C-alpha cells in the first residue's frame, strides 16, 4: 500500500490571466480534497494574486513556480530568486522542465544551483527528467534518466526534500501519453536509481510524478500504479472543471 500523499501539479506554462486565475482558484478551492495535495504553478506575475486569493478562499491549493534563479541575488537582470518566491508562499518549484532545457538552454549547472537555492529558501524542488523520442527509440531511457539525476544530485542529494517528475519529452503536449504500465516501469527504475543517493527509506518517501498528456480520462490509471505518486499536468489543467474532474479521478 502506498503511504505517499498523491500530488497533483497544474502547470499553466505561459497561459492565463489574473481573471482566469480568480475563476480557476475559486472553482478548484470549492472542492474539499484533503487526501491529495494540489499545486498550481502560475507564471511569475500572478504569484501575488495567487497568494491573496489563497488567503481569501482559505484554499487547500498550494502555490508553485515554474522556474527559479540559480543565483541568490545580485546583478542578474530578469532573474527571480528562491527567496523572492518564498515571499509569495511558493511551496514547490519545477526545475529542469524539458521546455526550459529545449527553448532556454538551461544547463545542468543551472539546475544544480536552482536545487540548492530552493532548499535554502525552504521550497520543495520538483526535478523534471525525461528522454526524447529518439533516445526512447534507441533504448537509452535509463541511461538518460540516470545522467539527468546525477548531474543535479551528485554531491548535494540529501540536503532537502525532493519530488521527481518523469516526463518523456515526446509525451508532453502531444496527446500521446506513455501508457500507465510503461510509466510504472520507468518509475520503478527511477526509485531504484535513487538508491545511489538516498537510503532505502528515503527512496520510499520520495514522490515520483508522471507528466505528459495527462487528462481527466487517464489520470486515475496512473495513480493506481505502485510507483506513480501523482501527475504533472499542462493543458489538462487550464480549465478548472477538467482539473477538478482529474483530481476526483485521482
Ligand atoms: C507539462 O507541462 O509538464 C506537461 C506534461 O504538459 P501536458 O500535460 O500538456 O502534456
UniProtKB/TrEMBL annotation:
What's its top-level EC category? isomerase
EC number(s): the record gives 5.3.1.1
Select a single GO molecular function from the record's annotations and give it.
triose-phosphate isomerase activity
Pathway listed for it is: Carbohydrate degradation; glycolysis; D-glyceraldehyde 3-phosphate from glycerone phosphate: step 1/1; Carbohydrate biosynthesis; gluconeogenesis
Alphabetized, the UniProt keywords read: Cytoplasm, Gluconeogenesis, Glycolysis, Isomerase
- Which reaction does this enzyme catalyse, per its entry? D-glyceraldehyde 3-phosphate = dihydroxyacetone phosphate
List the Pfam families hit by this protein, alphabetically.
TIM (PF00121)
Annotated compartments: Cytoplasm
| Entry superkingdom | Bacteria
What does the annotation say about its assembly with partners? Homodimer.
Q: Which family does it belong to?
A: Belongs to the triosephosphate isomerase family.
PANTHER family cross-referenced by the UniProt entry: TRIOSEPHOSPHATE ISOMERASE
What protein name is recorded for this chain? Answer: Triosephosphate isomerase
Source organism (scientific name)? Rheinheimera tilapiae
Upper taxonomic classification of the species?
Bacteria, Pseudomonadati, Pseudomonadota, Gammaproteobacteria, Chromatiales
